[in-house]
């Protein structure tokens, strides 16, 4: 695995590969890697010739300073895992490399409705930060295929929109959420859960399963029950919603279109998100 710290050097390296007809797969991450990230790398390896992984804890997407400061890192383990998984390239830029002019007064993306709801509502400015970093990364790596996880459902829709807005040539592949054996969606932030409170964490998945199960017959009552289950297990929910899977407009009953149930909730000071698709 080759490690790059400078975007220019990586771009030149990948351009040579592209000229030879190689297809690039890209897995952007913030590090503290787990099995969910590893599966994205494996999928990219299976579908492309050269897999590039980036590790960059992007300051501009954190609306909460404490969350940024406490974001877990494990760079040496990450490098070992990526190397063993067969990623060909690791991009490890500094903040200065990504934002040479600083992180203030950056460009604004017209994301419209998508950034006013759910994560956008509870984390103001978050998706602007995600787009600021992803636009830079995509311009450097210019991947044929971009691999992202369904766990961050709204983020996937935002990036699909960014690709459209910027007329980028990359195709987004959304990979299924990888879970622990008790159902908890894997997340770098899970490392911050104390052993005591970790026991309650799978309730977020149980709440989603029950909501999906009861949605057709109970509608909003099913949503209330999911909220109650979370609260019984010491979660402080930001939202429990069912939304149109394509637009993310929230709905109050089944509509005959594909829908998605989404939850964001705090366990102590750790904010967890998860979702499940509800098929018609
Ligand atoms: P992060 O490092 O949390 O920014 O995540 C990097 C990528 O990994 C994003 O596309 C995430 O959606 C994806 N990802 C994170 N957790 C999981 C998971 N449990 N299953 C599948 N993909 C995931």
Question: Can you give keywords for this protein?
Answer:
single chain; 280 residues; alpha/beta; three-stranded antiparallel sheet; 40% helix; 20% strand; globular
Topology, element by element:
Blueprint lengths: L1 E3 L2 H13 L4 E6 L5 H13 L2 E6 L9 H5 L5 H11 L3 E3 L3 H4 L20 H4 L3 H16 L3 E5 L3 H13 L5 E5 L19 H4 L4 H16 L1 H13 L2 E10 L14 E9 L2 E9 L2
Parallel strand pairs: 1-4, 2-3, 2-5, 3-4, 5-6
Antiparallel strand pairs: 7-8, 8-9
Helix pairs in contact: 7-8, 10-11
The structure holds adenosine monophosphate (AMP).
Summarize the structure.
This protein is an alpha/beta fold and 280 residues long. The protein is 40% helix and 20% strand. The chain is built from 11 helices and 9 strands.
